[in-house]
Amino acid sequence: MNTRLRLRPGGVTLIAALYLLGSAGYTALLLAWLFARGWVVSFIEQATPSASLGPALLLSIPGVVTTYFVVMAGFCCWMGLALRRLQRWSWFVTCGFAVLTFVLDISLFIHMLRHLPTTLVVAGLLRFAFLIWIVAYMNKPSVRASFGLARAKTAEA
Question: If DSSP states are collapsed to H, E and C, what string results for the chain?
Answer without folding.
Answer: CCCCCCCCCHHHHHHHHHHHHHHHHHHHHHHHHHHCHHHHHHHHHHHCCCCCHHHHHHHHCHHHHHHHHHHHHHHHHHHHHHHHCCCHHHHHHHHHHHHHHHHHHHHHHHHHHHHCCHHHHHHHHHHHHHHHHHHHHHCCHHHHHHCCCCCHHHHHC
